[in-house]
Amino acid sequence: MSEENTIFVGKKPTMNYVLAIVTQFNNADINRIAIKARGKAISKAVDIAEITKNKFVQSAHYESIKLDTEVLEGENGPSNVSSIEIILQK
Amino acid sequence: MSEENTIFVGKKPTMNYVLAIVTQFNNADINRIAIKARGKAISKAVDIAEITKNKFVQSAHYESIKLDTEVLEGENGPSNVSSIEIILQK
Predict the structure, then answer these.
(1) What mean pLDDT, rounded, does chain B reach?
(2) Which of B67, B71, B89 has the alpha carbon at shortest distance from B80?
(3) Interface predicted TM-score (ipTM) of this complex, two decimals
(4) Could you tell me the CA-to-CA distances from B16 to A22, A73, B10, B82 in Å, in that order?
(5) If contacts are CB pairs under 8 Å, which of residues 19-38 in chain B contact chain A?
(6) Which residues of A touch B62 (CB under 8 A)?
(7) Three-state SS letters, B32-69
(8) For the segment B30-74, what is each residue's pLDDT rounded down to a tens digit?
(9) How far is B80 from chain A (nearest CA, A)?
(10) Which of A37, B11, B57, B79 is the most exposed place for a label (fewest CB within 10 A)?
(11) If pLDDT is split at 50, 70 and 90, which confidence band does B28 have?
């Protein structure tokens, strides 16, 4: 059975996430990786996916790309933030 | 025949683009709108698509979401930039 791992994109440099994904794909049991991001990190998630696919794991393709809106509870009440989930399959 | 219009997301406020899309969807001949963005504007493009779909044009859905990498010729030579194309269909 193939496992699926998830990478949450935050404030680290882009290449840290790319390296984490490439490392996981080198594990024979991992065929699908979900890259998730919210708000301004969405642009970085797309960079990570494109760099991984074009430069390091050329056999990978996008299984699905989903956009959504999440409600975050903050100090000043709830606020909406956009999110992306990119499923990369080897 | 249905027309397709394209919105290029740049530095204007998010709601300017939402308003432009809602206005175009109110034109009976326009059923599909492509929202395109590059680099850091990708996050804003997702915000625009989600706000339009959730708050203003509830009948709309995502026909396709594509990620790509474009090569820009700059003063310091070519550089790669990620891009997104979100097709919103009424």
Answers:
(1) 93
(2) B71
(3) 0.91
(4) 39, 26, 10, 23
(5) none
(6) 67
(7) EEEEEEECCHHHHHHHHHHHHHHHHCCCCEEEEEEEEE
(8) 899 999 999 999 999 999 999 999 999 999 999 999 999 999 898
(9) 10
(10) B11
(11) confident
Q: Provide the token pair at A30.
A: 């991992």
How many CA atoms, within 13 angstroms, populate the side-chain half-sphere of residue A81? 15
Could you count the other beta carbons within 10 Å of the beta carbon of residue B53? 19
- Condensed to tens digits (0 to 9), the pLDDT of residues A13-30 reads 999 999 999 999 988 788
> How many CB atoms are located within 10 Å of the residue A19 CB?
13
- Any CB–CB contact under 8 A between A50 and chain B? yes
Whole-angstrom Cα distance, residue A23 to residue A16? 11
Segment (H or E) for A31: strand A30-38
Amino acid at B21: I
Where do we find the tokens 């760099």? A51
